[in-house]
Amino acid sequence: MRQRRRRILFAVTLTTSLLAVSAAPAAAEPAPAPEPGIVVRDGITQPVFSFADAVEERVWVETTLDTDHDGKLDRVVADISRPRETATAGLKVPVVFEHSPYRKGTWGSVPYPSVLVDDLPQNGLTRSARAQAEQQIAIQRARPNLPGTLDDYYVPRGYAVVLGQSVGTGDSDGCPTSGDMAETLGTKAIIDWLGGRGKAYNAAGEPVTADWTTGAVGMTGVSYNGTLPNMVATTGVPNLKTIIPVSAISNWYDYYRANGLVVAPGGYQGEDADILAMYTAGQARAEGRCADEMAQITAEQDRVTGDYTDFWRDRDYLPGAKNVTASVFVVHGLNDWNVKTENFAGWWDRLAKNDVPRKIWLHQGGHGGPGNNATVTLPGGQAWTYKQTENRWFDFWLWGVPNGIMDEPTAVLQRENRSYTTYANWPDPAAREVPLRLTATSATEPGGLISNGPANQREEQSFVDEGRTISPRTLVANPDAASENRLVYRSPVLTQDVRMSGRPEMRLRMSIDNRADANLTVHLVDYGAPGATTAPVVVTRGWLDPQNRTGRSHTTAVQQGVMYDYRWTLEPKDYVFPAGHRIGVVVLSSDQDYTLLPLGGTRLTVQPGASSLTMPVVGGRDALGF
User: Active-site residue 128, yes or no?
Assistant: First the structure.
């Protein structure tokens, strides 16, 4: 893969001590004190600066925004920690910057809309406390007074660390806007100031400059804190040199919607963009001076049609990938059902299309990073932990350390046995699309998956949606038994391991028999052999609103009892189905964990012989083995 390279004109002290000092002159006059500098050993900066002596300060950076419409430009808070030598010895350092809406004052009991509806679509209201897990991810990494790990780790290595507070949150001015251009520009204001182009003030209201920095900025963060780097990178702000988005959103539609359906992020059933805005604002601000802004988000997010509208277009960063000038190190969990995997995969595809310098690290965990001690051994035998890889990435892009990181394999991926391996790219370039046709010999019994041979075009199978009362785990279980509430199709027992890498695509010929609309859900499942006690593994999922069969931006009525062809992709995945197991497709309607839940009783009928799942199989049909 060809990638653009950039010359980086920072001086680097490649020594094993703070500075190589020449022999003292013969005269009695003392030698001048050595200039401070970073220390690089084995291609990675070393902790040689005193963290105990670090300079800490808070500034208020002026933005171009007035999100609360009070007639004054909003200011956003930035807390800074930097080596003492930046104040005493003229040392200029690059910046590791984490921006966040979670620093303080969040609202822990936001009113959630109910997902229990009589018909699709319809609204209700209930009260539910938003779980604190995502906030804790942010808090563990950094807090306003910088007790977190970023400054502990990077300041001794010759970086400044800046922790920002998003517009409308914490101690910053304004109102939160959940991912649109206002929040993007609020983030950009801090980067502009670090590059000498903006204004900032101290607590006394006096102007302050960032004369201690080279201006080079790298961003990182987890979840929302990782989304903000994606957002601001699309502006092409010149001194943002690199970003490391971890479990980050690239398109908010793919976070709160799926192919026309209202689909919640995993673990937060009922949440939507307005709930998140109120949560980050805090109750006083959300119900007070920002109440109008919160109401506007509620109205524009549209929980009725689920369509991709201007509201979501304003929060879709994929088209902006063409403006990205920073390098990007994508990090994501392959089992992240909060920020689903399409968010990293869609972003990765666009970065590749625009030839952005990039690397990707995928792990088997859920929402969050791989853990600092996760270790990969590169070709040649050199082993690096994730934290060291992050460090080396910043060293290369911010300090210009020639450590060869861009010459290493592009993709690091954790396999199912928890070991890490490397690949030339992701998805695997050897993956080929293989159609698996659905078959049935009975109107009620579980069907099959075949890659060769004729399919039965005449048989029809029906099921009734009771997703409000039956969990998807129950519907996925017992694949060799008939169920009136789902359909299941299974491959022959695999004779060899089969690796899928990329996006599966579902084509379903189906009718809705007695209502005007329905949820449509498909699970791709790893099943054991018949009679085995192996627990099923849901490999990936996908959802579709039948009314959006012509596109996510268009709602088109469905006629009862009429067969339509539905096509949509499931969430991207890299997964090995072991030899001795079976590949399974489970078709259901409402998904208790993610979708709105209408009253039961909707009947759906499928024509298996006209339906198929297309899998990206590494090695193609021959590797499938059936």
Answer: no
